[in-house]
Write a structure and sequence with these properties.
The chain is of the alpha+beta class. It has helices at 4-22, 33-52, 60-71; strands at residues 80-83, 86-97, 104-113. The chain has three helices and three strands. α1 packs antiparallel against α2.
C-alpha cells in the first residue's frame, strides 16, 4: 500500500507545514495546526505500515516491544511483567491532543525496563 517514496513525500509535506508555521508572522498560534497534525499522523501511519511489513527495519527496542506486545497483549498501564528474566512496565502517553489540549485523541504505548 505504501512505499518509501510515499514516506518521503509525507515527510516533505510535514516539513513544509512546519516551515510555514515557523515563518508565519500573524498573531494566530493555531494557524496551520490542523495541517501539521494531519501531516504528523500521516508520517506516523506510513512509518508504522512500512515497519510492520518489513520494508523499514525495526530497531532493537522496537523488536523487543513487539515481542512484549505479542506475549502480553492486554497489559494495562503501569503493569509490570517478567520477560526473559527482566521486568518491564507498560506505559501509555498522549500522541495527539485536541485543539483545546484537554482531550487526548491518540495514545501511544511503550515498555520501560524496571531496575
Amino acid at each position: 500500500m505504501y512505499s518509501l517514496e510515499d514516506l518521503k513525500k509525507a515527510q516533505d509535506e510535514l516539513e513544509h507545514w512546519n516551515e510555514r508555521f515557523a515563518n508565519d508572522s500573524s498573531n494566530n498560534p493555531d494557524k496551520h495546526s490542523s495541517q501539521i497534525k494531519l501531516a504528523r499522523a500521516t508520517v506516523r501511519s506510513i512509518t508504522d505500515f512500512l515497519k510492520s511489513n518489513g520494508i523499514i527495519e525495526l530497531t532493537e527496542k522496537e523488536t523487543l516491544e513487539a515481542s512484549l506486545d505479542n506475549k502480553y497483549p492486554n497489559a494495562s498501564s503501569n503493569q509490570v511483567v517478567d520477560f526473559d528474566g527482566v521486568k518491564y512496565k507498560r506505559k501509555f502517553f498522549p500522541l495527539a491532543k485536541s485543539n483545546s489540549r484537554k482531550t487526548v485523541t491518540e495514545w501511544g504505548k511503550r515498555w520501560d525496563r524496571v531496575e
